UniProtKB/TrEMBL annotation:
Entry function: Carrier protein involved in proton-driven auxin influx. Mediates the formation of auxin gradient from developing leaves (site of auxin biosynthesis) to tips by contributing to the loading of auxin in vascular tissues and facilitating acropetal (base to tip) auxin transport within inner tissues of the root apex, and basipetal (tip to base) auxin transport within outer tissues of the root apex. May be involved in lateral roots and nodules formation.
Keyword Cell membrane belongs to the record: yes
Listed Pfam families: Aa_trans
Membrane topology, as annotated: Multi-pass membrane protein
Transmembrane segments: 6-27, 48-67, 109-127, 134-156, 181-201, 222-241, 261-282, 324-341, 347-365, 386-407
Main location: membrane
Family of the protein in this entry: Belongs to the amino acid/polyamine transporter 2 family. Amino acid/auxin permease (AAAP) (TC 2.A.18.1) subfamily.
GO molecular function: symporter activity
Assigned keywords, A-Z: Amino-acid transport, Auxin signaling pathway, Cell membrane, Membrane, Symport, Transmembrane, Transmembrane helix, Transport
Cellular component GO terms held in the UniProt record: endomembrane system; plasma membrane
Compartment(s) of residence: Cell membrane; Endomembrane system
Name the UniProt record assigns to this protein: Amino acid transporter transmembrane domain-containing protein
Amino acid sequence: MAQLGWIAGIAIMIAFACISIYTYNLIADCYRYPHPVTGKRNYTYMQAVGAYLGGTMHVLCGLVLYVKLAGVTVGYTITTSTSLVAIKKAICFHYKGHEADCKFSNNPYMMAFGIVQIFLSLIPNFHKLTWLSTIAAITSFGYAFIGSGLSLAIVIQGKGEPTSISGIKIGPGLSAEDKMWNVFSAMGNIALASSFATVVYDIMDTLKSHPPENKQMKKANLLGITAMTILFLLCGGLGYAAFGDHTPGNILTGFGFYEPFWLVALGNVCIVIHIVGAYQLMAQPLFRVIEMGANIVWPHSTFINKEYSTKLGSVTFRFNLFRLIWRTVFVIVATIIAMAMPFFNEFLALLGAIGFWPLIVFFPIQMHIAQSHITRVSLKWCVLQLLSFVCFLVSVAAAVGSIHGIAKNINKYKIFQYKQ
């Protein structure tokens, strides 16, 4: 919001929300093949792409989808460590004063988070634990309202910083080129915040057939994206109104406010709790596809397919050697990458850029064209392709901007020695 300003910031958030509602409704209509109500179910997004667009698109969709899921686990590791350090810093500033040297390494917290995720990754059917969604929703609203409320308090007290309709002004501390890169990166952040296409079919799998799943999902899309956008506008708008050009990338970890320190710490606790479960919800589909692929390629391998049982008191645990090793290695690698490149905003922007156009715009539009038998070069076909092309340009710009930001930070950064 600080990079884009009031007009572009609000307009882009609303535009992304409208595009998401439209394309997610297209995704909902493609849940069944070939007819949205009477056709055969597609249990995954990839399966739907394969049914409507063929094998090549099926593979491309899987490649983008699982690269993004792997990237999100890295982003979650960075976010969690940032929030854990922020909790420690809030306590430090409270007792030692706001000018105290309260800098701490993120690495121990990333390693601790990685160890927790290794254990959680080995729980069978972790993704089916229904209480995860409830906790995620509560903690999401928790940190959003805490951040917005603290920002609102600053504005009400008359301590808000000056803002602009065009965002941070070009001047001695910001060149026109850097402003452009920052704007591109900001769009990537907003794009990431709008993306949940990867779990739409997981939600629809839980719905009954009457009324039709696509009709139920369209109502959920409208309600969910509207609520989500209102929260984004509150956090972005109030945060910008409070801090102006000095708005931190994360208002709960950037220390625009120090007191009440316990509320700042509580907001970060909500973020950590939310992400502990969210990490698994994103990682489980990746775990499953690799394990299913290994089972297909080596169906008679004892290492890959044999299940072992062990008892700990009255509880029986079942484990598989391949699953144990592969999941552990994945979490370790994700943690190491996060430790090597802990740049919060730029990394999230890159993830948003990678997933926005192909997953949220291109594949849904192409599936809709195939399902509805829209004539090539007709007016509707041209409008849909124009929408796809514009979103492609936004994704490319956001990706370039975030990569530029990461490269710029890496030049100033000693690997594995980042302190926040």
